[in-house]
Amino acid sequence: MSTTTAPVASRTAPPALRSWASLAWLHARYQFLETVRVPIAVIGNLLFPTLALLFFVIPQDAITSDPAISTAAVAQLATFAVMSSCLFTHGTGVAEDRAQPFDTFVRALPARPGPRLAGRVLNGLVWCYLALVPLVVVGAVFTAATLTPLQALGAVVMVAAVAVPFTLLGMAIGYALSSKAALAVVQCTLFPLAFAGGLFMPPEVFPRWLDALSQALPSRAARDLVVQVTSGVDASALAVPVLLGWTVVLAVLAVVAVRRDEGRRFR
Question: How many domains does the chain have?
């Protein structure tokens, strides 16, 4: 009895998809190396959340001695690390790239913009995970924070999930503004969102009006979901709808900014 074997092409990815993925990986590797070549950018991205943990959390014995409270504190700063990485990588990073002649050359090539944007998103996600490494190490050594294997897996997944709206916000800023303006806007956006979102102090100490305002922010929604996954504290019922709503709004802003930039520079 004769048998037939499927063609090799049917058992592998289509050539167009493989080419797209290869270009996306190439852009991601290029952008990662560009960031590594500026050591201060790497140090700031990796150390600031960890320094906040060292200076503001670890000296407080009431926090570090309680597993649930210390886990929530590390989770809050982990959310800040992800938000900071996304805003600086895609906000100031995109704006600085747009100011370079090489970016104009790359965008004039026949390749579609999809692989370039995918590579940028992948690069930003890598930096999000790298920013968590020193924070998690310090939290594990100097606090009672602990995670089960299932909670750790959930935390890894949540990093990618909560990075989505802040990636879109960063791209909206980066494609809409010049490099100098983007840096100022990122800084003026990051820290108010972090404070009001409960990333530096728990929302339980907020006055009632600030707590109500906080629950409408993407930073608070992300914080609540990350804390729920890592420590078991129930998140607000508004957390998921708020995060999804902001994701839709920021996606529209990012698309408008990208298309406006393309039309202004290449029409």
Answer: 1
